[in-house]
């Protein structure tokens, strides 16, 4: 099992476009032995300490194996809507790990 944590930074004013992309992309995860474990939108008053910019959203996703994640990224339906991702997301910090 692999775990992916994404810190997602969106472009100002592109929240609705980002939500449109997520409405398409998130359900596709399960087609590739994946599961969205956690999706949070941290509020500034909930952050105890930080040394980086606060993300708009944080996602924790699991996949059975690396190849499942790679297949998810190549999904044709998801690829048709990548323009929404490109329009709305400024940057993503992807942290890959395993359970210990």
> Strand order within the widest sheet?
2-3-1-4
Number of discrete domains: 1
How much helical structure, as a percent, in the residues?
Answer: 25-40%
CATH architecture: 2-Layer Sandwich
Number of helical regions: 4
Structure write-up:
- The chain is α+β, with helices and mostly antiparallel strands.
- It has a single domain, classed as Alpha-Beta Plaits (2-Layer Sandwich).
- It contains four helices and four strands.
- It has helices at 15-28, 66-73, 76-80, 82-88, and strands at 2-10, 34-40, 57-63, 89-97.
- Strands 2-3-1-4 form a four-stranded antiparallel beta sheet.
- It is globular, with a radius of gyration of 14 Å.
- The protein starts with a strand and ends with a strand.
- The model has no long low-confidence stretch (mean pLDDT 96).
């Amino acid at each position: 099992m692999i775990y992916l944590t994404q810190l997602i930074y969106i472009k100002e004013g592109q929240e609705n476009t980002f939500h449109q992309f997520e409405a398409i992309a998130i359900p596709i995860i399960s087609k590739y032995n994946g599961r969205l474990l956690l999706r949070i939108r941290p509020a500034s008053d909930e952050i105890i300490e930080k040394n980086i910019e606060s993300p708009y959203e944080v996602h924790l996703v699991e996949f059975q194996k690396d190849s499942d994640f790679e297949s998810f990224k190549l999904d044709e339906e998801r690829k048709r809507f990548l323009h929404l991702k490109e329009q709305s997301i400024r940057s993503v910090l992807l942290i890959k790990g395993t359970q210990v």
